[in-house]
Specification:
Protein Transport Mog1p, Chain A, three-stranded antiparallel sheet, 1 helix, 10 strands, 43% strand
Amino acid sequence: MVGCSYRDKPPTDWQKIDAGAFSLYAPQGWKFHKKQGIDSYVGEIAGDGVILSFDFGQFSNSLSDAQEPSYAVAHEFIHGSEAKIVSPRTPGQGITAIYFPSIPSFLKADNKLCLVGNDLTAAQQEVALRIFRTIRFKG
């Protein structure tokens, strides 16, 4: 495991976005959109030409298809929760994503969270990774 990411504080001009079960920080102008899910809570955080889609539930994508050597894969603790972060080694060709395999028990222990951006440029990927590290679960 890589160390805590508490060092990754959001820029002071970023806004807090409340997505219900969790919150995160994103650049000004980004918006939260709740979507209709079938067996989970789904939505997206969007701004600056980027869409980060999320799935919060029992069957969220574990990112098992995103593997070395095509992807950089990191395991970190983000505000006390274990997370897997993947990003393509070649920007613009694959997913940039974070997966939490276990959500704090006060939110129902079998829930997971996956937040994914597709084919992001290097600059978009950098912003997405910074956003991921600001995720906090309610409780």
